[in-house]
Here is the input.
Amino acid sequence: MNRKCPVLYLVLPCYNESETIDHSAVKVKEKLQRMVSEGKISPYSKALFVDDGSKDDTLSKLHELTKNDTVFGTVALSSNRGHQNAIMAGMMTARKFADIVVTIDADLQQDIEALDEFVLKFTEGCDVVYGIRNDRSSDGFFKKMTASAYYGLMHTLGASIMTNHADYRLLSKRALDMLSEYKETNLFLRGLIPTMGFQSDVVYFDVKEREFGKSKYTLKKMLNLALDGITSMSIRPLHIISAIGFIIFLISIALGIFTLVEFFMGNNIPGYTTSIFVSLLMGGMTMVSLGIMGEYVGKVYMETKHRPRYLIDSVVLKDTGDVDKE
Here is the structure.
């Protein structure tokens, strides 16, 4: 593994990004060429786009890019498998050829100029470098509030997750080889990678406005990712359910004793309001508890199937060079 002039592979997951591919490709190529000319990375460095089962002509544009310029490569998944799996597919393909891999969204809202700092941290000995947003000024009020609440919840639940870190990060070949040993189907890379324990550092960057098209990362996808993060990285919700159940059990005993005492003292207790309140409370807690446990059972069910995370339909990658990858 060459730390002085490493082979860098950029992994860019795409889903219906036809409007932005050409623009992003130009910026990516310019950046890689500058870094090569400055001696920061190897001339064999590439940009590897991962098509996550796009419905538009994203894949045909990627094939055209790859056909005309060897700096680009394409990994095409057979169907839409989600952002995390697309990233994983790209990283696992790139690790065969690269010393380092940096994942970045294809719309390049994450500042590509920060790549120099990522590579510098690697040359200083880091195997993992996390990209951290300077602020969330580009987000709307709702997204800011939900993001803040989510990171707070994840830390409360004991998950090792970096605040304001998305999936802009560098991994060395050594870290990628270790990551390949993790076999779970329900991927949450933001929480999984910090558990590997490699020497790491952070790079701060600004998020830019999207120049073309609209984000394909819908509210539903964000909620699913958040749920995957909680259930994949922590079992504390199950502990909380147990604690709440025990507290309710103690309250029920106290109410039972109080009711019996009042009965033997001859007091008339209508009890209608109390009965309704307790019934609704217990019913609501039961349904919430079953829902949370159901999420975990569902995750276990999917893991036991041992299905592949993704299926690669094709890989187009030319002129990788004869590089020693010790």
The domain at 8-233+308-316 is CATH 3.90.550.10 (Spore Coat Polysaccharide Biosynthesis Protein SpsA; Chain A).
